[in-house]
């Protein structure tokens, strides 16, 4: 296994990259056009998309169709689910996750971002549009904060639709200044943020193939492709026990069935036995594939398809975990967690009902206890047992679920110890799991006490 991993390290760096930003910022068009310029989509298919989108009166969406695959997405012109594709730059192999921008689909955006190492934040430079996305309750801020809270540290900001403002340097500088200040405030390091002026529609400054004298007169920096190539390598926890969060399940050919997802920690090879949680089934790994190519083993960071046998396909769900049977994940119905509240309108009190978003899982939860309020920068306790929490506060709370959830503590597994809380369609907090307080549901307790 070690040899295989060393072989892999000698190849190009693998990165999972999510594309985020306000609805209609041009995310799908930008990435579709980049894939086209990089030769990932053949001319015949692109021509077909152009013809078909024109017929529907949506000619400007042709490049977005590369990623927006379902009929409903194409008809509505919005991304709803996470589209996944792959491309290469000189030094990197990128698995691309195109997240929806619309606020109704934030849960899908959280699922996609939880699987990402790095992100591209797309903003619309058009007059009035940048302001809508950034200042007037748009998703630019929420997405940037969510990505940071979910562990993304490196970010490229694509200042898109520069064609609509005649490639004006002053407008670009104004946008990058405002965003730069904000991104630093929410925890991104200056060296890990970069800005690229571009146009997804005309394809300018994606790979440098399309000249634009108006841009070249003042911009001497990188193209989008060059900047993606400069992302720093991310270290993977391959020595930890195996964990994979199931993102999709399908019946392939032959015996068993397949699940796809990102390996969060550890490694796996055909012949391994794995434990499926929460069902508790023991399964055997029959085969592994990455981008439809079969592999002798796969490691943390890989987006992999695992073919398994030994259980009923109906007992595994999106959000189930595959793990090393000798070291399973923790099961919890009550946890202690550190949370940071976002810009919430209402005060949070004991008994507050929230939706708990963790990897691909969403579960109802109740805030059972407000243990303490913390100083945001030092982490010191400012107040014990506060009566309520209001916007931007940091606190330790206890959360309870009806059903056991399989998770990990942040101190043991950074990627598996993070979660988000939502309420009434808004993301209200990001949190870190500190302790598992109870691991049995009320019904389990009922069964054990009566039995
Ligand atoms: N002028 C101009 N229009 C663009 C550019 N990029 C995208 N558009 C247009 O903006 C509209 C929205 O583009 P999409 O790529 O679907 O936007 P999106 O951000 O992926 O949208 P959601 O996924 O629904 O959030 C389409 O009409 C595009 O043609 C650009 O660089 N310049």
UniProtKB/TrEMBL annotation:
CDD domains: EF1_alpha, HBS1-like_II, HBS1_C_III. It comes from the Eukaryota. It catalyses: GTP + H2O = GDP + phosphate + H(+). GO terms for cellular component: cytoplasm. Keywords: Cytoplasm, Elongation factor, GTP-binding, Hydrolase, Nucleotide-binding, Protein biosynthesis. The keyword Nucleotide-binding applies. Residues 12-238 form the Tr-type G domain. InterPro entries: EFTu-like_2 (IPR004161), GTP-eEF1A_C (IPR054696), P-loop_NTPase (IPR027417), T_Tr_GTP-bd_dom (IPR000795), TRAFAC_GTPase_members (IPR050100), Transl_B-barrel_sf (IPR009000), Transl_elong_EF1A/Init_IF2_C (IPR009001). The keyword Phosphoprotein does not apply. GO terms for molecular function: GTP binding; GTPase activity; translation elongation factor activity. It is found in: Cytoplasm. Belongs to the TRAFAC class translation factor GTPase superfamily. Classic translation factor GTPase family. EF-Tu/EF-1A subfamily. This is Elongation factor 1 alpha-like protein.
């Amino acid at each position: 296994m070690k040899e295989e991993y060393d072989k892999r390290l000698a190849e190009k760096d693998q990165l999972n990259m999510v594309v985020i930003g306000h609805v209609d910022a041009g995310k799908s068009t930008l990435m579709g056009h980049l894939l086209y310029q990089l030769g990932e989509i053949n001319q015949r298919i692109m021509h077909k998309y152009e013809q078909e989108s024109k017929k529907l009166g949506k000619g400007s969406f042709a490049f977005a169709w590369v990623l927006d695959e379902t009929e409903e997405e194409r008809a509505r012109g919005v991304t709803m689910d996470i589209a996944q594709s792959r491309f290469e730059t000189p030094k990197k192999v990128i698995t691309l996750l195109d997240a929806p921008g619309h606020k109704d689909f934030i849960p899908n955006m959280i699922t996609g971002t939880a699987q990402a190492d790095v992100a591209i934040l797309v903003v619309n430079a058009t007059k009035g549009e940048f302001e809508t996305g950034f200042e007037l309750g748009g998703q630019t801020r929420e997405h940037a904060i969510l990505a940071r809270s979910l562990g993304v540290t490196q970010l490229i900001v694509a200042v898109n639709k520069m064609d609509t403002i005649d490639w004006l340097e002053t407008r670009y500088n104004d946008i990058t200044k405002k965003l730069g200040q904000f991104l630093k405030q929410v925890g991104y390091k200056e060296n890990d943020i970069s800005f690229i002026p571009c146009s997804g529609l005309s394809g300018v400054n994606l790979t440098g193939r399309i000249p634009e004298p108006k841009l070249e007169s003042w911009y001497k920096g990188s193209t989008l492709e060059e900047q993606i190539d400069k992302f720093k390598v991310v270290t993977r926890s391959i020595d930890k026990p195996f964990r994979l969060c199931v993102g999709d399940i399908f019946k392939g050919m032959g015996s068993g069935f397949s699940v796809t997802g990102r390996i969060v920690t550890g490694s796996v090879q055909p012949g391994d036995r794995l434990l499926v949680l929460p069902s508790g089934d023991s399964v055997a790994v029959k085969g592994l594939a990455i981008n439809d190519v079969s592999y002798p083993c796969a490691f943390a960071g890989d987006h992999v398809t695992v073919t398994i046998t030994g259980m009923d396909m109906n007992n595994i769900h999106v959000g189930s975990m595959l793990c090393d049977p000798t070291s399973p994940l923790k099961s919890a119905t009550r946890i202690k967690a550190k949370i940071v509240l976002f810009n919430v309108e209402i005060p949070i009190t004991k008994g507050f009902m929230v939706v708990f978003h963790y990897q691909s899982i969403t579960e109802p939860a109740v805030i059972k206890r407000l243990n303490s309020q913390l100083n945001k920068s030092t982490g010191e306790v400012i107040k014990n047992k506060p009566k309520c929490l209001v916007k931007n506060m940091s606190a330790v709370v206890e959360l309870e679920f009806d059903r056991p959830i399989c998770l990990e503590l942040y101190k043991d597994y950074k990627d598996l110890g993070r979660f988000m809380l939502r309420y009434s369609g808004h993301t209200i907090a990001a949190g870190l799991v500190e302790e598992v307080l109870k691991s049995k549901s009320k019904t389990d307790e009922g069964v054990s006490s009566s039995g």
